[in-house]
UniProtKB/TrEMBL annotation:
Coiled coil: none annotated. It comes from the Eukaryota. This is Flavin-nucleotide-binding protein. InterPro entries: Pyridox_Oxase-rel, Split_barrel_FMN-bd. SUPFAM superfamilies: FMN-binding split barrel.
Amino acid sequence: MGNSRNLEYPKTPINKVNRYNVRETYDLEQIHSIINDSTFVNVSFNTPDPANPFPITLPMVGIAASFEHPSAGLGEPLDVYVHGYVSARMMNLSRTGDKKGLPVTISATKVDGLILTLTPYTHDVNYRSAALYGYANVVTDEAEKLWAMEQVTNSVVSDRWRHTRVPPIPAELSSTAILRVSVVGGSGKIRVGGPRDEKKDLDQEELQHSIWTGVIPVYEHYGEPVPYKTNRVKDVPEHVVAFAMEMRNRNESYAADAIADTSQD
């Protein structure tokens, strides 16, 4: 059997990582995983309004997925779906702008640890970050819109869609817009490991014996589900309990494994 090779986004002047390129990744699976592991992604775009020269960045719920190929894995080419209110400025610009769609940048970052070294100059952070670039268009096909709404809902809590009142009523469908971002490129940066002090500091015994160095693990903690006062269901549904436990354990485990990872040393 031949060696399999992961798909990568091609390096271009737009997505090429310039600093700390030892941490760079163009691997589709790694980048899409960071996007989908983030509860929110940041979506940035420009407006044609001369009175507002500043880029706009919005936190949105989104997921990398493929309507045309629903079984596609994270290591395959994917679109990104985000949802918002039908009359929002971003939705309107996506309808009335360039034929390709509204140019957007989608980014996400997960912090996994705080790196404490002998000097502030070499302090660092274990992290995973990703940025995708593409063109956003409003989804008009009802089947794709419903599918995307399900994917976005389940990206927040696994398997949540089918445990709710679905499908949405017409008023809900008409007030919600789904954007499909056709991705044209992307890149990521990942930092793992422990402190990396410089030799000139490591050679000073007095520093070694007076300054603590190490890592504070950082991870998103999913607590025990708490029923609200209007809830009338006696037991917390299994899909909610299982999701909270899985995410809590997975995040904690990743933060610990990132400290032990010496691949960048």
